[in-house]
């Protein structure tokens, strides 16, 4: 879809100034024609796969692989602690650990452990966006491992836990039932 939109924009956006600036326009036109020629061309499965990395709450979309708490501790120390603190207490990046039992208080501490309703979202978010300075640089095994460590530090999985697609999706997060459907009409 993104490829299609870009090509569409090249068609629509190049029109108005084309006549006035002949040589540059001709050069740009040639470039545009290459892109426009791609409209209607099926996008390769490999190209879609690179973008199609979302994981649903029920675990749909989780890749093969696995990772344990001990490995996750090493990954975290190496690639996350600089921003999130050695114990996930938060520095430049958010606090990731603790806060259980504070949500109804005057000072709610919203973390992965206290607030997030699905453990699968943790995998999705880390794989997609973290480390902040090098997103999508971790292997699936590393993401499983560092997720396991964060969940372990939050008291959600035991020290010897090894997470994979099946076991991650089976976790019931403490705040799973803490959300209510938005009653306002309409959709965002
Ligand atoms: C360079 C700094 C940096 C590094 C390194 C980094 N993070 Fe982050 N992280 C952030 C920032 C900043 C945010 C908030 C991003 C936002 O809200 O858009 C964040 C947000 C998060 C969140 C969401 C927290 C929440 O409650 O919303 C998780 C989970 C997370 N990081 C995990 C990790 C993991 C795991 C690693 C290591 C693999 C990592 N981060 C490495 C800076 C970093």
Automatic annotation (TrEMBL):
<dbReference type="InterPro" id="IPR009056">
    <property type="entry name" value="Cyt_c-like_dom"/>
</dbReference>
<keyword id="KW-0408">Iron</keyword>
<keyword id="KW-0349">Heme</keyword>
<dbReference type="InterPro" id="IPR051459">
    <property type="entry name" value="Cytochrome_c-type_DH"/>
</dbReference>
<dbReference type="GO" id="GO:0046872">
    <property type="term" value="F:metal ion binding"/>
</dbReference>
<dbReference type="GO" id="GO:0020037">
    <property type="term" value="F:heme binding"/>
</dbReference>
<protein>
    <submittedName>
        <fullName>Cytochrome biogenesis protein CcdA</fullName>
    </submittedName>
</protein>
<dbReference type="GO" id="GO:0009055">
    <property type="term" value="F:electron transfer activity"/>
</dbReference>
<keyword id="KW-0479">Metal-binding</keyword>
<dbReference type="InterPro" id="IPR036909">
    <property type="entry name" value="Cyt_c-like_dom_sf"/>
</dbReference>
<feature type="domain" description="Cytochrome c">
    <location>
        <begin position="67"/>
        <end position="154"/>
    </location>
</feature>
<dbReference type="Pfam" id="PF00034">
    <property type="entry name" value="Cytochrom_C"/>
</dbReference>
């Amino acid at each position: 879809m993104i490829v299609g939109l870009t090509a569409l924009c090249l068609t629509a956006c190049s029109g108005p100034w084309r006549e006035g600036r002949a040589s540059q326009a001709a050069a740009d036109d040639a470039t545009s024609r290459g892109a426009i020629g791609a409209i209607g061309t099926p996008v390769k499965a490999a190209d879609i796969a690179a973008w199609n990395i979302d994981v649903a709450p029920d675990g749909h979309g989780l890749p093969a692989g696995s990772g344990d708490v001990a490995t996750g501790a090493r990954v975290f120390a190496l690639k996350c602690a600089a921003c999130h603190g050695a114990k996930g207490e938060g520095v430049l990046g958010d606090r990731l650990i603790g806060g259980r039992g504070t949500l109804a208080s005057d000072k709610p501490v919203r973390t992965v452990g206290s607030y997030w309703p699905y453990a699968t979202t943790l995998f999705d978010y880390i794989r997609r966006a973290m480390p902040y300075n090098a997103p999508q640089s971790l292997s699936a095994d590393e993401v499983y491992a560092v997720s396991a460590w964060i969940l372990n530090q939050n008291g959600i999985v035991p020290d010897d836990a090894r997470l994979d697609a099946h076991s991650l999706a089976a976790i019931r997060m403490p705040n799973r039932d803490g959300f209510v459907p938005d009653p306002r009409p309409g959709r965002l």
